[in-house]
Write a structure and sequence with these properties.
The protein folds into three domains: about 280 residues, no CATH class; about 45 residues, no CATH class; about 50 residues, no CATH class. Helices cover about 40% and strands about 15% of the residues. The strands form five sheets. A four-stranded antiparallel beta sheet has the order 4-5-6-7, with no helix packed on it. Strands 3-2-10 form a three-stranded antiparallel beta sheet. The chain has a two-stranded antiparallel ribbon with strand order 1-13. The chain is of the alpha+beta class.
Length: about 450
C-alpha cells in the first residue's frame, strides 16, 4: 500500500541518518554514539551506574562545530551585496514574514549546505481574492515572501520529461504547526505542503494536515496568468539540482564522534585499569576468623596502616602497564580531521598564513561553490517575487567569495610604495589591495583612498 503524501524519496532515506548525526554533533547531543559498557554488568542498577560513569568521562572536543562556524564566518567576512528594486526592498529586512533578514537567511543556507549538502527556498505569494491592493502590499499582508526549508523537511520530489529536458513537477515539504487549544500551548504536529504541476503543466499547492485531510488546490498567478514552473529552488554543493549532494562536514563529524568515543575509553581505562590492586596471600598458620580478629578494620591501604597475614603470608600490588593506545587513536583522528580541513586550535602551533591557505584550500573551494549556488538560488527566487508583483527582475544579490581577509604588513606596504615610486606598479593595483585587506571600504574610489593616504602622509 502506498504511503501517499508521506512517501519519502530513496535519496532522502539514505541521507537522513547522516544529516541527523551532523546536527546532533553540532548540538553536542552525542552520548547516544558511545558504546554501551553497562550491559556487561549483571546487576541492573550497576549497569546504569557504570554507563553513567563512562558517559561522564567522555570529553567532546567539537572541532566539527569550530569548522562549521569558521567556514560560515568566512563566507560572510564581507556583507552580502543586496540591491533590491523598490517594490521588493522590504525583503532585505523581512524575507519570510517573521522578521528574518535576507542576509540571515542566506547565512543559514550556507550553514545547512555545509552540514547536509542541501537547502531549499520557496518563493510564494499569499492567496488573494482578486487583484492585490496597494494597502495590503504596504502593510505587508499580501506580498511575496521567500521561505527556507532544511534538507530534512524536503521529503520527496520528482521530475517529468518535457521535450528533451527534465522538469521539476513535484516537491513535498513538511512543516511544523501549532495545534494547541490556545496561544500558550506548544503542542505541534506535521503538515505536508505539496507543490506540483497538474496534467496541463500548471503549478498548484495543496496542504495535508496531520490527519491527511487536504485543502483544495491553490493556483498562484503572475500577471494574472497561471505558472508553469514550481518556484522551489534547491541549493546544493556542486549544483542546484534536486539530487542530494554529499555533506562537506560529514567526514569530519564521523572522525569527531570517533575521537569522542576514544576520550571515553581513555578516561575509563585511566580510572579502572591504572589503579593498583592489593593481593593478599594468607599464611597457612592463620585462618579467616583469626585474620578478621587481627584486622578488625578489614583491608585498609596506607603508609600508617598495616595488615597481619600471619607467618609466611605476603601482600603485593599489581597495576596495569601504562597504555596510551586510546590517546594515540585520538591524536590520529585529530590529524585526519585536520587533513580534511577541520579547524582545530592547537596551542603552541605556529601556522603561517600561507600554510593556513593550503590547509583550507579544499574547504574553501567547496565554500566557493556553495556561495555561487546560494547566489543563483536567491536571484531566481527574487525573479519569481518580482513576477508576483507584475514586474521584471531588477535587483542584485551576491555572496562574498573572498574568504581570506588579505593583510598588509609594514614590509608589504613599503614594497608597494617603493614600486609605485619607481614606476613599476600602478597606484590603482595598490588601492585594490588595500580594499581587499579591509583597510578601506569596498565602495571607496581610488580618488578617496589617495586623498586619505596623502592626508596621513603615507604615500
Amino acid at each position: 500500500m502506498s504511503a501517499g503524501v508521506k512517501t519519502t524519496h530513496p535519496e532522502y532515506d539514505d541521507n537522513l541518518p547522516k544529516w541527523q548525526k551532523v546536527d546532533n554533533l553540532v548540538d553536542a547531543n552525542v552520548t547516544q554514539y558511545l558504546r554501551n559498557v553497562g550491559k556487561s554488568e549483571k546487576d541492573a542498577a550497576r549497569q546504569i551506574e557504570r554507563q553513567k560513569e563512562y558517559e561522564d568521562g567522555a570529553v567532546l572536543d567539537n572541532f566539527t562545530l569550530k569548522t562549521l562556524t569558521g567556514l560560515t564566518g568566512s563566507a560572510f567576512l564581507k556583507p552580502v551585496t543586496v540591491d533590491l528594486q523598490s517594490n521588493l526592498e522590504y525583503l532585505a529586512e523581512d524575507v519570510d514574514g517573521v522578521g528574518t533578514t535576507i542576509e540571515q537567511q542566506a547565512k543559514e543556507a550556507v550553514d545547512q549546505d555545509l552540514r547536509k549538502g542541501r537547502f531549499g527556498l520557496l518563493a510564494d505569494m499569499p492567496e488573494t481574492e482578486g487583484d492585490t491592493t496597494l494597502a495590503s502590499m504596504e502593510n505587508g499582508s499580501t506580498v511575496p515572501r521567500i521561505t527556507r526549508y532544511h534538507a530534512e523537511n524536503v521529503i520527496n520530489w520528482n521530475y517529468r520529461l518535457q521535450g528533451s529536458a527534465q522538469k521539476l513537477d513535484l516537491v513535498v515539504l513538511t512543516e511544523e504547526v501549532n495545534n494547541g487549544a490556545d496561544k500558550f500551548s506548544r503542542d505541534t504536529e506535521l503538515q505536508y505542503r505539496v507543490l506540483a504541476l497538474d496534467e496541463g503543466g500548471f503549478y498548484y499547492q495543496q496542504v495535508y494536515d496531520a490527519e491527511l485531510e487536504v485543502t483544495d488546490p491553490i493556483y498562484p498567478r503572475q500577471n494574472g496568468a497561471l505558472m508553469s514552473e514550481i518556484p522551489f529552488f534547491f541549493i546544493g554543493v556542486s549544483d542546484n539540482t534536486a539530487t542530494v549532494d554529499a555533506s562537506p562536514i560529514y567526514p569530519i563529524a564521523e572522525l569527531n564522534i570517533g575521537h569522542y568515543r576514544n576520550s571515553a575509553d581513555t578516561e575509563e581505562n585511566s580510572f579502572v585499569a591504572s589503579q593498583a590492586m592489593l593481593i593478599l596471600a594468607l599464611s597457612e598458620h592463620i585462618n579467616g576468623e583469626q585474620w578478621r580478629k587481627e584486622n578488625p578494620d578489614g583491608v585498609r591501604i596506607g603508609s600508617r596502616r598495616g595488615l597481619n597475614v600471619g607467618p609466611g603470608g605476603s601482600g603485593s600490588f599489581i597495576q596495569a602497564a601504562e597504555s596510551d593506545k586510546a590517546q594515540k587513536l585520538m591524536e590520529m583522528k585529530k590529524k585526519q580531521a585536520v587533513e580534511l580541513g577541520a579547524q582545530i586550535i592547537q596551542p603552541g602551533a605556529q601556522i603561517t598564513a600561507e600554510t593556513a591557505r593550503i590547509q583550507q584550500s579544499v574547504n574553501h573551494s567547496t565554500l566557493s561553490s556553495i556561495a555561487k549556488n546560494v547566489t543563483a538560488a536567491y536571484r531566481e527566487a527574487l525573479t519569481v517575487c518580482a513576477g508576483f508583483l507584475g514586474s521584471d527582475y531588477d535587483s542584485s544579490f551576491k555572496l562574498n567569495q573572498d574568504f581570506y581577509m588579505s593583510t598588509l604588513t609594514a614590509q608589504d606596504r613599503a614594497q608597494w610604495v617603493a614600486e609605485i615610486q619607481q614606476g613599476i606598479t600602478p597606484r590603482s593595483l595598490y588601492y585594490i589591495k588595500l580594499r581587499e585587506a579591509g583597510e578601506f571600504p569596498d565602495d571607496w574610489t581610488d580618488e578617496q583612498i589617495a586623498s586619505e593616504l596623502e592626508t596621513q602622509g603615507l604615500l
